[in-house]
User: Fold these one by one.
Assistant:
Number 1:
Amino acid sequence: MASGRIAAVDMKVGINTLLYKMPTGQIQVLNVGISNRNDSDVKVRLAFVDGGINDLADSDYLEYNTVVRANGVLERSGIALAGEQSLIGYSDTGNVSFMVWG
């Protein structure tokens, strides 16, 4: 089981992006930090999916079009992923980083 920084992604604009997929047979509690490196607000999404990016459904969102203020941070902690579950991120603007750690 990985610990520390697991993934760091500089988001592409308007594209659902796989942040991390838990390996089969493992369970881990993870945290996600979203950093807005812009001088203006952005909207982000964070989903917790059974499966991969192609399995994303409306009911999977932990955050949906949540505003992260200019130069601000949003953190979600205590997300328990089991094998084959994934975290998926989205940003409506560039210069936004998603980091996963555990």
Number 2:
Amino acid sequence: MSNQALFHLRTLWLFTKSDFKTVIFPQTVFGIVVALSGPLLTSNPAPKTCEVLRNLPKTILWLWLNLLNEVVSNQRLPGSIVEDSVNKPWRPLPTQRMTSNTARKLLLCAIPTIYIASLLLGGTEASMKLMVFSHMYNELDGANENWLIRNVLNACGLSCFSVGAAVTATGFGDYTLQREVYVWISLLAVVIATTVQIQDLPDIEGDRRRNRKTMPLVYGHVATRWSVSITIMFWSIFCCTYWDLDSVCYLPCMLIGISIAVRTLVMQTQDADEGTWKLWCLWMMILYSLPLMRTTPRHL
């Protein structure tokens, strides 16, 4: 492979690098869990692990392509370049690996490519909705002017990723998703909307430079930390109860939830906040796994 090809591949990697923990890994887990849950969440009466693993590359490809569109749309904006020069100076535009105009041209190619891919892989509706939410988040400045709109758009975007992951992992064209999946995704969207402000704690300085109205900058970091700690503990209990889990199955979710709550209140450096944000991503992966911990189907 030529040096130029490697350069461009690395550029694409740098665009999406920081969102693997937020999108690719958790949503891949969600897709696998839904597919393996069988009649609880899908029309597949007896899912086989080998079949789900065979669909795994399709799921990851769908997630990565749609993620690429979202992050390029975001990172090419002037305000994002200013923010990333502080918070993530290794990204392609702050390091001048790519210009904003070149990123725009990349999007012109990426959007039809993603549409065609979604027709083949599944999740077309989720992909199109994700583009709408991305446009509202980035071009319409929804991420910057109001912290609540920002949180809701984050929740809507991640929910679209969840639907796409579930459709592709279950087997597009072979099986369908049950109503229960969409109810569960809707609940998870509320969870995300009420806790995702945790991601803004390590990025306060960069957000201040671009005059972004995040919760820590509007209400202060202390109020934000308490809001995260309280809601994390509430949802840790609620989601486990929602699936009627045995007491022992509460432990993973509760332990990570307690760790996040304590770290958020006690460890308040930028590095500590970055670590707590990563724990939140792990906590979401555990929430995504809860349906597999059930032993009997539940009718919603």
Number 3:
Amino acid sequence: SPGYRRKIVEHEAGHFLTAYLLGCPVEACLLDPLRAATDPRFQGAAGTVFFDPLLADAMRAGSVPRSSVDRYSVVVMAGIAAEAELHGQAEGGRADEQALVRLLTSLDGGRSWDYAKITNQARWAASSAALCIRAHRPAFDALVEALAAGRSVGTCVMAIEEA
């Protein structure tokens, strides 16, 4: 339905905008699950692929600073935050929550990230993402329109910059 598609666009715009604002290049954003099913970057679902060079370097080095964990957390929880900001609740985001849990429990075999800490990190990140989206609402709205129109990543970045 058009309403459901719009929510997908808004959800992905949350990821895209926060990734961009936090310095994580956006590689791709696909909204069509059928196209995503043929692209291995998307694991069969619509989504936004971003790259955090600082996190990648830190993981290779075996020591991930809290700032990298926080940045990743905000971007991953931003889709849920966008939905909650616009509609008062989020329908999507289970895969996002699972991605956050996977990262946190992989850092030191899960020793420092128990359920309570993961839950607090997710809440903090979603709140931070919501504040970011609220503070940059004109850019978010312009990005939603660009994504809904099927624009390229570069054109979407221009929409953010020109808002």
